[in-house]
């Protein structure tokens, strides 16, 4: 599984990348429940959906 969790920080987009060791014991949904701040909506997306060019990373937006 090559999934990532994204959510808006209010100033940009946060990306959480689970480790393979974590996923041996937990689900990606459990990681989101643990690490995404309370009240924030998030999406679990395929890593290929994240732009590889980080030049304008501060301009990325999260659309709910």
Please describe what this structure looks like.
It is a single chain. The protein has 64 residues and is α+β, with helices and mostly antiparallel strands. The protein has one domain (3-48). Helices cover 22% and strands 23% of the residues. It is built from 2 helices and 3 strands, in the order E-E-H-H-E. The protein has helices spanning 20-25, 28-35; strands spanning 3-8, 13-16, 42-46. A 3-stranded antiparallel beta sheet has the order 2-1-3, covered by helices on one side. The two termini are 23 Å apart. The model has no long low-confidence stretch (mean pLDDT 89).
What features would you highlight for this structure?
64 residues; 3 strands; 22% helix
Show the helix and strand layout:
Blueprint: E1 3-8, E2 13-16, H1 20-25, H2 28-35, E3 42-46
Outline of the structure:
With 64 residues, this protein is α+β, with helices and mostly antiparallel strands. The protein contains two helices and three strands; from the N terminus they run ββααβ.
Largest sheet: 3 strands, antiparallel
Low-confidence stretches: none
> What structural class should be given to the helix and strand makeup?
alpha+beta
* Residues in β-strands, percent: 15-25%
Provide the residue-averaged pLDDT. 89
* Beginning-to-end CA distance, first to last residue: 23 Å
Q: How many separate domains?
A: 1
Portion in helices: 10-25%
Report the order of strands and helices: EEHHE
Number of DSSP E strands = 3
Shape designation: globular
| Strand order within the widest beta sheet | 2-1-3
Q: Report the C-alpha radius of gyration, rounded.
A: 12 Å
- Count up the helices: 2
């Amino acid at each position: 599984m090559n999934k990532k969790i994204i959510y808006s920080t209010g100033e940009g987009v946060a990306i959480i990348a689970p480790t393979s060791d974590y996923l041996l014991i937990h689900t990606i949904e459990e990681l989101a429940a643990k690490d995404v701040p309370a009240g924030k909506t998030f999406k679990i997306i395929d890593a290929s959906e994240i732009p590889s060019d980080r030049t304008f990373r501060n301009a990325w937006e999260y659309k709910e």
